[in-house]
Records
---
Amino acid sequence: MPRLLLVLLLAGAAGAAETATGAAMPGPRHRHAGPWQVWNGRSLQVAMSFIAPLDDAALARLALEVDGQALALRPVQRRWPREGGAYAVVEWQLPAAGLRPAPFAVVAPNTRWGGTLAPPPRRDDPARLAVANPLAWPRPEQLAALEGPLGGPVQAVLVPGGRALERVLGHGGWESHLALVPLCEPAAADDAARAALLGPALGAFPHGLRWGLLGLPTAAGFDGVATAVGQMGGEWQVFVQPQAAWDLSLLAPAERGDPRPHTAFLRLCASLRLPLVLAGGELAGFVSEPLSTGEDGQLAGIAGGCRYVVAAAAGGGLSSLPPLVAAPLDRSAGIGLSADDDLLRLAVLPDDAPGDLRTWTWERWAKDAPPPTGGWGGGEARPLRDALVAALGGGAEPPPEQLAKVRAIAAAMTDLARPALRAGEPGRDEFNLLLADGSDGPPPSWRRFLALHLLADDDLRAGRVRVAGDLPVWAQREAVLRALGETRPLTAWWSGVIATTADPALVHAAILLAERKPSLDLLGVLVERLRRQAAGTTAIDPDPLLQSRLASTVFDSPYLSPTPLRPIALALKDRLDPLGRGPLVRFLERRGSERK
């Protein structure tokens, strides 16, 4: 038996184990990945990858069965290079004509890998898509949890962006039952891998695709947006931007956290009546307010605007939260999009808090009527809006248990119409009471609404109101991140938070700001954090990389005197992870353990 065929046969047991344990990262012990399915607009690709190319004899023994019948289709093998050899993808193309859901199996001698064909819906059928980030590949339980919010089972998984796809495709535990719909641009660093994995599907949708009632136009640049939208059918259209232009990730350059350069793009999308722009991102995601330009030409949250969504809920933090961002997706989550005759839905379901479901909905509107997506958030904040309208005399009274809170919000909202809400003015006390009400605070959708409107308060951000110790943890975190996103942040009120927090996103954000805009005030905050860690009053960060970044920012800084840093370095150098103590060792070698 040829050596590679033996490898293929041995893969069966390993494959069963991988399927049982869910998403596994490929490595030398993984002999195969898949099978998976990819829709390329003309056919459904069924494929598997192997750790080494198959010789002709092994390839001839592979077959694809549908409904128990072997198909007379020859597989195609593609390779891409890796260190010490090459991976290989074996693929079959099933023409679109006559496709229906049916069991299939990739068959080798004594081994079968099964799944269910997942053809696209008919053009007038409801559409239900999950949205995947290759850096946070969905798990089967995430996709199952989205079934309720989307109104039915997920039909396919949309990938707007494809970095690191070769590490996860085929290891998610769902790819054999759901099709992948890639709308990602190839990148120079991994063209070979992506071309091998996706085959004809890579670049198959230069202007987007139609999925049931949902149109998903896409374009490489600003000039192609109107053309793509004009060419794309569908009762609902959501523009897909493979690489997020407006990216608030901690890893993004500073200029990508500023939405103003994208004013023309968002104004165009709003004028084309697009409810959403769905963008592929890095580690952090968010949902914006409805955006377009106001009378002054500046980007603003405006009724009839277009929400910008970075679908990258991978658990990363945001270094800046401008008021135009309605909801940060700062935890790993399942993201879904559905469209039927009446509604478009965007759903975000955090893994660790399934009750904290975030949904935004859009209703069909008449062509000449303004779309119902004003600055209230359209779907998520609609219950709050309705309750506020009722409390102000415009509708039915809300339930008794909500009435006091709603009246407090209504009173405070009246004052929020002014530029700032200062201490002692009507409304501030009501907000403080609302924020402090209960151990968990207000419901999640209300918390995000309050974070958007209250924490944008200039007095709060500038520290002119005593809030650092008064805010609950969730609001304090939002306020600190907003302060770190300011052009010239004042460190007075939030310095103690950075010195003591156990939230790595806050520490990362402070480090990033100190690297971009060094100042003695900000460096002093990080020194205080290390001093407290040396004294044992603040816990040492468990992440070795965060330890290293924090130590490097302080001990490699040319702006700080070495004298007060020596005792901190001596106290911490044997307590940090080997990866984290490098900057301390360099500092002591360069400056000495004692002052000379």
---
Amino acid sequence: MSRNRVIQLALVLVAIGALLVTSFVSVPQINKERQALQLVNAAPNADTPAEVSFMVTLSGPFRGFVINYLWMRIEDLKQKGDFAEINNLARTVTALQPRQPDVWSFHAWNMAYNVSVQTYTPEERWDWVDRGIRLLREKGIVYNPKAVKLYRELTWIFFHKFGQYSDDMHWYYKRRLAREWTELLGMPMANETTEDAIARFAPVPASPHKLEALIGKNPQVRVLLDEFFIPAGYDIEAGFEPERKKAREKLLRAIGVVLMYHYINDVNMLPKKIRVKPAYDPAILPAFEDDANRQAITALVAHLRKRVLIDNYNMNPNLMLEMMIEFGPLDFRHASAHGMYWAHRGVQVMDSLLDKRGIDRVNTLRQRIHTPQDMFQNGRLWYDPHTDILTQEPDLRFIPSYERSMELAMEDLRKNQAGVKDTYEAGHENFLLQAMVFHYMYGNRADAAIYHRKVLTLYKDRPHNVQTKRYELAMDELVAREFLGNVINMENLSAYLHGNLRQAMWARVKGDNEEYSRRMLRAKGAYDEYQKEQSNATPIAPQDRMGLPPFEVLLADTINRMLVTPFHITSRARLWANTPVPVQRMLFDRVRPMLYTLAADSGYDPNLMFPEPPGMESYRAEQRRRAEERRRRERDANSKEVKSGGDGKQNK
């Protein structure tokens, strides 16, 4: 070997040695910085799914080449519309990079936004959006619990894709979500207060986590399972844990369907003999007919809800209850309730990080503002499983939580985001104006005056307000100006419509036909004008993207809320007598159990107080036909999904 070759070899060895020494010295500091930024790519452990461990181990040093190829292949398949193969490859990529938040974020976004809009039916589009949500909620966040980005992305999908109006299918998403969570957690009681909502949910986190502990406290649960549910095909103790998770959710949904179609949460309110409906599993109905089982079913349902939330949805029932106490009666049938939950978890994660700055923090705080704002604007949800009709109207109970979220974000910005321009003050001013307008529209003049004084105190002397002189107006004039300036906003219009419809029906009950006609014309005129300007029909959307439900549906929603309000039974009977027959048909089966019980308890003949409207049998037959058509479409969509080899979707 020549002298020059020896020198070259020696220099190479020295360089390698220097690199090794540098790496040895630098790695601890690099790892420390990676930990601070949550960039730790942890090795597979006992909790890591087998498929992830297998892919990480198998790919070894070639992982980078494999990942790059798969990314390019996914983009190519997206252009060709091969969505089933995209889903399979996405699973592989996330298995190869389970600790990289950007990978989960990209694929969830791709499914929920890019792929979904290239499908042709509401069922297919829902399927892809649901996959994106589950990818983040049940996998991405599980593998990356400190990645604030993933909480922000999940919050945004719920808030924007479901809650807003840009997607042609947003009404379909809202209905599917409402049905899913009605089956899981039930629905609010009639005229439910915040305290009622907390008391209704409280047994869920308090329930024993283990089935054995539940049976120890309530031995009748053992009898219930052995004599009724296991023979009916709901063995929640058989097989390995993945099978038990599916069995628990299957049983919970089967019970939830029975409760849902009776509009109740309390098993004790079910009739002794339940009439079989097409949606019921008749095999479980005998369990409800024995009074000895009813307390055990109630206890079992609370246990199942707790386990399904934790095991199948990666949600914490204790945190859900804490948020109800702090922020208001969250109704998880509503997309923004989920948005609030995941934004709140994201804020909790942020507070545990070493680096408390960055755009993810600002955006997550902003989302914790937007979601209670949406609950305030349209958080009262009415979903009818018989007709699949859903309507929303403002829920003023969320005004304080919206204000609290705004104040916390402004304080956080001042403390942790030094040098960042304050982006929340304009929103805070608009909130105070909204709170004033909504309270005024709903007849809460004293509360409207409180927010009027607040906005004057904080923002009257700002240059833009001095120039426009808008705060020189009296409150009544300011309300009119703010409402008319935002009438194109669907939330403001909803408040306006429901407010006028309420006043119209009360006028009808009192015999003031002139006021009734004036209010109805005002509501119908605003409705027609909005529909003409904003409706955006598409060939496949089941409801116009920006359009409101039919006017009769809005009137039915308003009258339903009035009928369940606790005032004298004779006044409710007069309201019923003045309700148009088509609207009576929509409401009768829903309100009959409560109204007939109240009438009988008050000594009146229910059939005379609330007579069944003419044409109910044909109306029911038509609703059954439509329900069967919906189920057929969903079965067809699920069948296509199974044939495509898709994974990660649970049948609902």
---
Amino acid sequence: MRVTIPRKFAIEAAVICAYTVITFVFFLPAVMHLTDRIFGADTHCLDWSWNFWYFKRALFETGIRLYRTDLLFWPQGADLYFHTFSLVNCVLYVALSPVMSPATAYNVLMLATFVVAAYGTYRLCVYVIGDRRAAFVSGMLYSFSAYHLIHAYYHMNTSSIQWLPFLVLFFLRTLRERGAGNPMLAAVFFVLNALSCWYYLVFSLFLLPLLWIFARWKSPSWFTTGHPKRTATFFALSLVPMLVLALPVLLQYRGDGYMVENDVSLWYSADIFSYVLPSPWARLLPRWLRRLPSSCGMLGEQILTPGYVAWGLVIFLFWKGRRTHQAVWIWPAVFFGVLSLGPFLRVCGKWYITWTDWEPIRIASDFLRDATGGLFGFDFRRYALPLPGLLVGRMPVLDVIRVPGRYGLVVILCMSVMAGMGLVRLNGFLRMRFAGRRWLPSTVAALCCMFIFVEQWTYPFPSQDTNVPAVYQKIAADPNDVAVFEVPSEHWETQARYIHFQTAHGKKIAKGIVSRQSPSQQRFLETDTLALLLRGERPLPDTCLNRRTVSRFANTGYRYIVVHWDWLDQHQPRNDPDRLREFLDRQFGSPENHDGASLYRVEVPLPRDP
């Protein structure tokens, strides 16, 4: 019996397959190592192996709390209320873990963000624009934007941009179409978007009202009878479960400046040229073009370009298009673009010093800083132009946004939609000039996709080794509840590796990586004598430490000291490797050596002082 697939479903399946193939080609040769390496440019991506591992333990093991752990920063432990768990990805990881290795599950989730983000934007643009070819190009622009690729280097949470287009789609359908299905689906994608990244919860709370306002102003025909009731239903279905799920975090929230760091919000703001200069990692672009961002002081999260294809189509839309529908998207793009610039205008990596010698500005700056108790801790004399981000970044709850440049995600989504509109307008213009050539729209769309690929292709996409040194297998075999002190212990790159290694041995460690760290977490590291010596904070003695000093360290639970000699010079140069080896050999005896690391055992009971 022959089974006939409806044409509509066949087209949708073909679109998904096309995005999947493009994604796999884009990430070659990294996709050839799905099972043994993790996608990412540095060890930050290894944080997520710990996040997933710990979430699974908290879900299935008794005595493990999700928002509080003593496995890191032992013996104080650490709060995880503001840690970047990305609960949706954690749940998906747990679902995949029975059939996939940890590295494979991570890579599949990362690749899925590209396919789903592209398809979500495609569906949004089909609904708004009505042209499948233009919608396909818009999906490419949004999913393979510099923003998405750069975050795929480091962060699973901010890489999860795939739910935002679906949220916008079903929110618009809630306004335009009758029925209860659209508000329910919009609420589902609101929760998925928020629980993937707290940043995107804030973005949604800004974006949806803006879309409602500008749609009501410029396109009132979108609204059908009963839309207030449907909109209220959507917000009720969205916010009630979010309040329940976010309640532990909200209870721990403190509006005391803990969430905002002036220097962080300043240095991670977008530059005025962030949306114009190309990605420095796009290998198919000329080298001189790729060097422009670094010559202007922009790297990493400050690269927000939607690409020159997007800019060309958007400019053409404003040149030849009608102002009615594009206004719904341009004003949210402007709003989020201004917020992404942060507290002060930044041009080519610099804040121009124009008011330094103007006495009234100095007096006003000092008064504002003192009157607000340091809330506005910037020295206004150093900067040229304050922006709205200065105030927004200090509002309650909004101060979770420590990286203003991430507001640029909404700019890229809006520009992707407008680029699709521009492509429709361009095809109409070409059809008038070259009548009868039906192949022309498909050819133009294919050329746009090819140029997008050329603009953004990062080859080879980096990945990280997930192997665990053999020394940790020895520690894992210890049945006792003990702690491990690792050296070097200061740099975040080594800490990312240590928490990845912890997923293999399961013992407590002295430090780790936690978002929004509290100073009290490092009390032991800053007070214990042996810990200070191992961290290079004090000079190493020429004799053994007394029994009481070592006993204090051992009684805390530390039974192992692991020294990675290959990393010492780079990440903790205060320790001389030869003197450290001599000190540890004298204090704890000969170590076990594996893969460039030495394992020292802190024996209990300790021998008496001579």
---
Amino acid sequence: MKRSWPLLVLLLCLSMYCHRAEKPIVAWTPDEPQTNTAVTIYYLPQGENARLVGSNAIFFIYEIHMINDVVVKSSPMVLNGSKWEIQVQLPDSACLICFKFEDDANRVDDNKGRGWYIPINNQQGELFPGTDYKIGQLFLSHARPEAFPDFQQARRAFVRDIKVQPDHVDSWFTKWSIDKYTTKNTAPIKKTLDSLLVQYPDNGDFTWLAFQTHWKIFGDVETAMKYGTQFIKQFPSHDRHSQVAYDMLQLRNRTASTISMNELKKLINTTSDPDVSGAVLFRMANQYLHARDVNNAKNAFAKMAKLDSTDTQSLLTLASMEIQIGDYNSARKNLSNVLALCTDQALLKHNPWMHPGKRTQQKYSLLTQIHSATANVEDSAGQFAKAISHRKKVLSLGTPFPAYEWTKIGDAYTQLGEPDNARDAYVQAVLVAIDHTDAYDKLIALASTLKIPSAAISDSIVGWVTKAEQQQMKKAPAFCGTDVDNKRICLSDFKNEIVVLYFWSSWSKACRDEIASLNELVHIFGSVADVHFIAISNEYKTSIVNFLVENPFNYQQVQNASQLIKDYEIIGYPTHIIIDREGNIRKIYTGFTPGIKDKLQADLTRLLKTEESPS
């Protein structure tokens, strides 16, 4: 009987552990779905994410991988009790579905940046060849900066794929890349490669594999070029031929800043591979730009835009060049095409694994670029009223360069012969960037045209700026929130004190890059009792605390603040807001702002009415 006690205790512990274990976050039926059928996916939020249930819409973001295509969609889920669910119809040839979850406050559950996936069987109950290769690529990818590749899981997937397709050279190459990175030992790779070359003689795929492996894994450029030359001569109709030809061009010219334009033109005229065409055209365009050959650079970008009509940056660059040469109608047309690509669905299609907040920020960034470029078109064409309208749209979208846009608005009003409106615009430029000398110089020139005596110009400008600042002051919305120490914090706690709000997110690189300088700001004003620094995020406590472990941030941290973000109409991260002692918003900086620490320091020093910042 005594011998049974340890076993009973073990069973009891296991029972308690199983009882306490959380339910799975994701489940689906049937367990092994097939093509041309439906799969029902369930989401059971756990821990902090469980707060979403019943309070926010949840969207199912997914990719359906087929043999030769990928479909990206977003669909709302249905709340059924404590779980969310959705049914997805799987098309013919679907081999894999990958997915994550987003709510309407831009929060995301993406399984540590990698999402979830379900392999899809064919009608014979088997996986499509190549499915494991796609799974391996998923484990190598990462949607967030803190989500690192899972080399072990990826390698297992590539090994499974090689067992099914021993001639799948992409799996061989990627597996070897992992082996080199994780073990630093290339001897086994070379032995296997030599064996495969014997096993598959005169095979274009394996000659390509030898070329890539010697170049990118062994670092043996001389041998790589030998295999590259052999591949180009021996396999002229291979689908990788033009890619190898371009790679060889780069290897032969690796010590030169440019490649012969004749060689690039020859390749672009012979390849049918869109990826190679895009890479070659981009190289040609940049070499033309370096040579200040705007017309040929424009033609190269035009071909890139034709090759990929969804390439927003190529279209924007093309429009910029068309403005330079005075082709305003073409510029308007291309900017209109970019505007049509700024829908939520289009951005989701191209960036499904991007954080939803970052995707929204990308949308606003694109829109500001489009309207600013369109304003440049109208300015160049002499349509100043239209230019002003577009620049005001840029300002409403939260451009990171408001002083520039206000100055250009002032210039347009000057061209229209409206000095009072021009003055008001230049004043706004000075308000948002007190060190913006261009606007200040134009105010001086404008004051002269308004017959203001030279001795009174400086005082007049100060008066204009002060009056505008007072007229635009508005009360900061009241708020209460909870910080990561579970302490209640309200704006009303800081009556007659200055508050600096920082709306941020851990996924934003611009925010992460600012933290060190913001910590310096806290240190500088740490001895000032009536200045308080508060960071506000819609992320949950766990996410913020995990970030702070590696990235100390000395602001008081308010978490789960989606309503507060809406109340302050935040459209992008980072956003800095300074609130004065009377509760008025005195300064807003939206987006990445160069020298933000110095600007905030100057603003706070001015509000504190001291001649020098505290030390």
